[in-house]
Write a structure and sequence with these properties.
Elements lengths: L4 H17 L7 H8 L3 H13 L3 E3 L6 E3 L1 H10 L5 H16 L2 E8 L2 E8 L15 E3 L4 H8 L3 H11 L11 H14 L2 E4 L6 E9 L5 E10 L5 H22 L2
Antiparallel strand pairs: 1-2, 3-4, 3-8, 4-5, 6-7, 7-8
């Protein structure tokens, strides 16, 4: 039976969402069929149509499917309405006002976390200004750690191996430390980095998810190490989570 009409569109969108979640590694036909609860012949027809339209590509060596170039082109066309930096302004400003500390927005770029927005807090002693566009390996900053820990375990492992040679620039941080930090994030639900990315600075971070659970960014709050006491961590984490939820909801409107 051919897949057409509204049902076919819904299924195609589901496939694109699944591919977006595994953007780096890609997915096999059998993985996609199982995840979408479709037969393999039906999934094969869907993928063939998406490949023809440029919305999916298949790696000739691994036979895995990934998002295609048309998805990127469509994203560029809609970018002015879904600019993360612009959309994060109000949320980051409110969080900075409430906490008194500097807030940041990070996005993933390959194996790095990139700072794309920053709002200075009102507390007299602030953290050093992290330049917009600056990047560090995932797992080094609170934002990067929140992003890394939110990825599938297989992606985490690959990324940690890839960034291991670069971790020496951040004190005695090594791959085992990053693995342990990721495990702790999954246990407590937030990232906490102290005296790593920037000496004397502590930061907290949580991921921001869009529709269907797609990882979009990470929000962080940074303060001097002495100011970020255990009690203050417990005060800020709920505010961070609320801000991340607010931004995720905004992006779905």
């Amino acid at each position: 039976m051919l897949v057409d009409g509204a049902q076919g569109i819904s299924r195609a969108v589901l496939v694109l969402k699944l591919l977006a979640r595994e953007a780096d590694a890609g997915l096999r036909l059998v993985d996609l069929a199982d995840a979408a609860q479709l037969t393999r012949p039906t999934m094969h027809r869907l993928l063939k149509a998406l490949v023809v339209q440029g919305m999916a590509v298949q790696d000739a060596a691994t036979r895995r499917y990934r998002l295609g170039p048309l998805v990127f082109e469509l994203g560029l066309a809609a970018a002015h309405r879904f600019n993360l930096r612009d959309l994060s302004m109000a949320t980051l400003a409110d969080l900075a006002q409430t906490t008194g500390d500097t807030t940041f927005l990070f996005v993933r770029s390959g194996d790095d976390a990139v700072c794309i927005n920053r709002i200075q807090g009102t507390y007299p002693v602030q953290t050093p200004a992290l330049p917009l566009g600056s990047r560090q390996p995932l797992g080094v900053s609170a934002g990067g750690l929140a992003l890394l820990a939110a990825l599938p375990a297989a992606d985490q492992g690959r990324i940690i191996e890839a960034i291991a040679p670069r971790l020496g620039a951040y004190g005695d941080l090594d791959a085992d430390d990053v693995r342990a930090h990721c495990a702790l994030v999954l246990k407590v639900g937030y990232a906490h980095i102290a005296n790593r990315a920037v000496p004397g600075i502590s930061a907290l971070g949580v991921p921001v998810y869009g529709e269907s659970g797609l990882l979009l960014a990470a929000i962080t709050v940074a303060a001097t190490h002495n100011r970020m006491t255990g009690a203050r961590v417990q005060e800020i984490v709920p505010l961070l989570r609320a801000a991340a939820q607010s931004m995720g909801t905004l992006l779905q409107q």
